[in-house]
Design brief:
7 helices, single chain, Phosphatase 2c, domain 1, six-stranded antiparallel sheet, alpha+beta, about 270 residues
């Protein structure tokens, strides 16, 4: 199991991430970055069943980290939106070009979900994603999903062709309609969510959401100790307890002006 911490951003929003191989997979194709100084957090999940999933997720994290640290965006909402979009598009280009140079990596891709926080004039989470890794906001006992999966069945549900219950049990429920790196161009979804001081943000790969329903995730968050390391560990432990069928990675972010740690990015995860 791997964990990393980051130095507190002057806005007070601070995150921590953890990754685990799970109980079934032989390697961990997840990767993540905690960039607290820039108020940016990223989770990537290499596409299972494709060559180079672990390569794609690491390349995505590295490219996004490079873009963010070079850009150093201001705290305004337009700047944060543009920085996140540019980082995702840069990651897509890097992955696609690497696959073009190496035939053994043809078709590699990864899902990505990232969040940054604009603090002026009030805190707003800016969420960018491609694929089915998700972002949530936990607020006063309720878990709010902030992203919409780019999947075949999510589209079917949105179009009224299938109920949510039917989709949850469908054998094709994890087939993606969009991923980072599989095509020369991709347009990430960028959404915003106005934050309250006691909100908690959660980024995760589908290794968590395949094992835990939103209701169970909310229950685990509500019943966990207040510390970020304990919360990350409890979520991963629960996913593994219920089968651990995939790699599982989570990042949790909250407003905490009282704690600080060193800024770290973590381009690859190990058990």
């Amino acid at each position: 199991m791997t964990t990393n911490h980051g130095r507190a951003h002057n806005s007070g929003w601070r995150g921590l991430g953890e990754s685990h191989i799970g109980r079934v997979r032989h390697s961990n194709q997840d990767a993540f970055a905690v960039l607290n100084e820039e108020a940016v957090w990223v989770v990537a999940d290499g596409m299972g069943g494709r060559p180079g999933g672990d390569v794609a997720s690491r390349l995505a994290i590295r490219a996004m980290t490079d873009t963010v640290t070079k850009t150093r965006p201001r705290d305004g909402l337009p700047e944060r939106r543009e920085c996140l979009r540019a980082a995702l598009i840069a990651a897509n280009q890097v992955i696609h070009e690497e696959a073009g140079r190496k035939p053994e990596l043809a078709g590699m891709g990864t899902t990505v979900v990232a969040v940054t926080i604009a603090t002026a004039p009030r805190p707003v989470a800016v969420i960018g994603h491609v694929g089915d890794s998700r972002a949530y906001c936990y607020r006063q006992g309720a878990l709010i999903q902030l992203t919409r999966d780019h999947s075949f069945l999510e589209d079917a549900v949105a179009e009224g062709l299938m109920s949510l219950a039917e989709a949850s049990a469908h054998p094709l429920r994890h087939v993606l309609t969009r991923a980072l790196g599989t095509e020369p161009h991709v347009e990430p979804d960028i959404v915003t969510h106005v934050l309250e001081p006691r909100d908690l943000l959660l980024l995760c790969t589908d290794g968590l959401t395949k094992m835990l329903s939103d209701e169970v995730i909310a229950t685990v968050v509500a019943g966990s100790p207040a510390s970020l390391p304990s919360l990350c560990s409890r979520l991963i432990e629960e996913a593994n307890h219920r089968g651990g069928e995939d790699n599982v990675t989570v990042i949790v972010v909250r407003n905490d002006l009282t704690k600080a740690s060193q800024d770290v990015s973590f381009p690859s995860a190990s058990p």
